What we know:
The chain is mostly beta strands. It has a single domain, classed as Sandwich (Jelly Rolls), CATH 2.60.120.290. It has strands spanning about 1-5, 5, 15, 25, 30, 35-40, 55-60, 65-70, 90-95, 100-105, 115, 120-125, 140-144.
Amino acid sequence: MNTEGFYICSCRDGYALNEDGLTCSVSCSGTFTDLLGSFQTPDWPGSYPIEDFTCVWEITIDISEASIMILFQEPYGVFGSEPCETDYVEVFYGVGSNTTSVAKHCGVSVPDRIVVDGNGATVVFRGSTHSQMNRPGVSVVYRA
């Protein structure tokens, strides 16, 4: 909404307004509790930002004997190659400070589905200024 002498800035999906009220920065983390859900890197399926940022998505299901299936959708692309040092997507068993890495990926090949036994999983995406090529990032669908 703009009126003479007054304006309100807003940011597109995957970004949040900075304290200055004028600029936006990447904001892509979240907590999910539904049995089925999805999330994406900023600007997916376009190119994710070439800047240093981290997205942390935590999935917690209120079922004691659960398993969570993580599916990566096309288009998929994360700058880099093994050992995925700068840009990567990593899946962890558990949430918070009690996690164990299950898989770490980069490149352009869509990873196979990942099943995490238990009622909690964390997906971390790391983007960096080291990216030399435009990549779409990731779109994830999870199901318990």
